[in-house]
Amino acid sequence: MGSQAGTVLDPKSRNTGPVILLGAPGAGKGTQAKLIAERYGIPQISTGDILRDNVARGTELGKKAKAVMEGGGLVSDDLVCAMVADRLKQADCKRGFILDGFPRTVAQAEWLDRHLTDNVSFFDKGKPYKIPPVVINIKVGYNQLLQRLTGRRSCPTCGRIYNVYFQPPRSEGICDVDGGKLVTRKDDTEEVISERLKAYERQTLPLADFYRGKRQLREVDGEGSVESITGAMFKVVENADRL
Ligand code: AMP
């Protein structure tokens, strides 16, 4: 039986299962994923972060992904699915995980479905069982997305995300948490943003229908304050009849 947000005794001791965040670039997936990860003690798996890290380290994967990412397109399904399969094997995923930026195409969603069925189990008193994913679509209008993306800055040290219009740091360009110098993502320029939004409309928007058809889709209005959106997200996770 699900329980109301705030009444779960210890959200960190239960199996949360897979949580999937859908939403356009700039919808707030990264910000919300971090807060969900913290509350439930499960890892945030951001395919964008893992890819950026590979690009920065100059790995084979990074070399293959770099040009596509800089142009705002999507990295091939094969590469991204293999990367996620690898990440889900790690021990910190055993109570659940939150996928942020994956799946991004219907082919990735179909792969994930098979992968969760065939390879991912959770355990109750040593006994394996399956938990279906809860899929949350964060909905934000186009103009708001543009402002969020052009105003986005992040701290390279702690990952905290700011926005120069809506959530500026206390001193300009400096992280409130650790004093790091804030950076703008390379693909947050207007030209690349427009390509990313096109890729979203063509390839990622159909995913909402895919999960709606499976009755796994929940929608959250992503235009309020961070706190109100987070509250709505916790409610969805905790009322998903799985905790
Ligand atoms: P993000 O940080 O989620 O906006 O991702 C940044 C970039 O990484 C995207 O514009 C894509 O080029 C690439 N990327 C991230 N996740 C995926 C994915 N699931 N499939 C394909 N490409 C991805």
What does this entry look like structurally?
With 243 residues, this protein is of the alpha/beta class. The protein is 44% helix and 15% strand. The chain has a five-stranded parallel β-sheet, with helices on both faces. Strands 4-5 form a two-stranded antiparallel sheet. It has a two-stranded antiparallel ribbon with strand order 7-8. The radius of gyration is 18 Å and the shape is globular. The chain starts with 16 loop residues before the first strand and ends in a 5-residue tail after the last helix. It binds adenosine monophosphate.
Outline: globular
As a percent range, the share of strand residues is: 15-25%
Query: N-to-C SSE series?
Result: EHEHHHEHEEEHEEHHEH
Computed Rg:
18 Å
| Content-based structural category | alpha/beta
CATH domain class: Alpha Beta
Bound small-molecule species:
adenosine monophosphate
How many strand elements? 9
Question: Any low-confidence stretches, pLDDT <50, length ≥5?
Answer: 1-6
Number of domains: 1
C-alpha end-to-end distance: 7 Å
Counting DSSP H or I runs of 4 or more residues, the number of helices is 9
Major sheet characteristics: 5 strands, parallel
State the helicity in percent bands: 40-55%
CATH H-level superfamily title: P-loop containing nucleotide triphosphate hydrolases
CATH topology, by name, is: Rossmann fold
Provide the residue-averaged pLDDT: 92
Q: Taking strands numbered 1, 2, ... along the chain, how are they ordered across the largest sheet?
A: 2-3-1-6-9
The assigned CATH architecture is 3-Layer(aba) Sandwich
